[in-house]
Amino acid sequence: ALLKHYEEPFPELTNIFDNGVQEVAETASKDFTSAQYPTISRSTLGVIYKVALTCMLNHAKKSRAEKEDELDSWNSVMTFLQKAVNPLKVWRSRSILLTLMKVCKPLLERFLRLGIPLLERSFRSRRNDVVNILKTLQISTRYLQMICISSKTN
């Protein structure tokens, strides 16, 4: 609920994932809690992911294809998506993966509909930013694709 009041929630979400979620995911202990964020533990990661990813999706839904400053917004969304996917490479949780898959589908559909045309228009003027967004997206979706393939074979 607190994240709804931020106009730009990604700096705070990034801080939570860098300092809290990553720390908990890398620790073997089930009872470990983050020093900076004591409410973040393995048992609360599912809720944190659901709230953070829903916030990310709602922010992406506000994006419009016409505005040039939306390129920075899409960059923030893709960077956060990568930060949300990275801890799952170390510690997999079915409930978190399910939440991630549910949120990523509409996010990627929105990006294909609004983000790609924006990237095409902005490519000449902001080539490095466009390439960075695509690289970040590719890293995240490659891992999600790997998860989908491994779940099909199991």
In short:
The protein has 154 residues and is an all-alpha fold. The chain is built from 5 helices and no strands.
Largest sheet: none
Distance between the termini: 37 Å
- DSSP strand tally: 0
Helical content, roughly? over 70%
Strand content: under 5%
Mean pLDDT: 83
The 3D shape can be described as globular
Uncertain ranges? none
Derived from helix and strand composition plus strand pairing, the structural class reads mainly alpha
Order of helices and strands: HHHHH
Number of helices: 5
The radius of gyration computed from the alpha-carbon positions, rounded to a whole number of angstroms, is: 16 Å
Question: What secondary-structure arrangement, pairings included, does this model have?
Answer:
Elements (H helix, E strand, L loop, with lengths): L9 H17 L18 H17 L8 H21 L3 H29 L4 H27 L1
Task: Report what the structure shows.
The chain is mainly alpha-helical. Helix content is 72%, strand content 0%. The relative contact order is 0.12. The model has no long low-confidence stretch (mean pLDDT 83).
List keywords for this structure.
single chain; 154 residues; mainly alpha; 72% helix; globular
